[in-house]
Automatic annotation (TrEMBL):
<feature type="transmembrane region" description="Helical">
    <location>
        <begin position="26"/>
        <end position="48"/>
    </location>
</feature>
<dbReference type="InterPro" id="IPR008983">
    <property type="entry name" value="Tumour_necrosis_fac-like_dom"/>
</dbReference>
<protein>
    <submittedName>
        <fullName>Caprin-2</fullName>
    </submittedName>
</protein>
<keyword id="KW-0175">Coiled coil</keyword>
<dbReference type="Pfam" id="PF00386">
    <property type="entry name" value="C1q"/>
</dbReference>
<dbReference type="InterPro" id="IPR001073">
    <property type="entry name" value="C1q_dom"/>
</dbReference>
<dbReference type="InterPro" id="IPR050392">
    <property type="entry name" value="Collagen/C1q_domain"/>
</dbReference>
<feature type="domain" description="C1q">
    <location>
        <begin position="122"/>
        <end position="257"/>
    </location>
</feature>
<keyword id="KW-0812">Transmembrane</keyword>
<keyword id="KW-0964">Secreted</keyword>
<dbReference type="GO" id="GO:0005581">
    <property type="term" value="C:collagen trimer"/>
</dbReference>
<keyword id="KW-0472">Membrane</keyword>
<keyword id="KW-1133">Transmembrane helix</keyword>
<feature type="coiled-coil region">
    <location>
        <begin position="84"/>
        <end position="111"/>
    </location>
</feature>
Amino acid sequence: MTYLRTVQLSSTCITHKKIRPRILQVNVTDMLLVQNILVILVSFSYLISAEQQNKYEVYQKIQQDLESMKFENEARFMKTDIKIANMKERISQQDEIIRQQQELIERLQGNQELQKHTRQVSVQTKVAFTYRTSSDHSSLGSDQTIKFDRRMTDVSNSYSTSTGIFTAPVGGYYAFVLDTRTLPGRICWIDAVKNGVPIATNYMEAPSGQEDSETSFAVVRLDTGDQVWVRNKVYHGHSCGLDDLANFSGFLLYEDL
């Protein structure tokens, strides 16, 4: 019996000696497999993280571009709004000038004294003229006098085509009309002046490839020898150009007694 136990024990020991190396081998293999899987997972997570980072950078770039476009559009709209507001203000000022001039004419026409003067002037001096430009003025200088050299009518020969100046032959109230049109894409500021002082203004701002036109009307009192002419005023350095349809007219409403 003692022998048998010993053999069994020895067998058991032998068996354990054979099993232990196998268990150790299996554990090492599993650990290597787990380690490789972890390496793969970590690498994959890095790839996912890098891809997400790239997507985030692209998203940030798109956001920045959109913000930049938004600011540019807002600035463009603001400039357009300011320009429209300025144009509305100029139109309002011109309307007010026309209204005041119309009121003045109505008061003069409704005045019995004016009717008396009109009857007297009808047998006295007659003044009326209209002149046009015969060609385009492609580049006008600052304060340059615009000469209307094509005569349409001039009953008193009071306008000089060589100087571009009208000289009042008699004292009285005169009416003047200035009609101008720009060359395409030009910006012009044109004044009709009495002895150098503006009495009417045509402001024109033509878009590229298009013309712009303006007409102004003025009633002023002139003494004998007073002069009226049309000149260019350079506006913020812009080069003004007028076509050959510009015209300048004037006539005597009534003469001083």
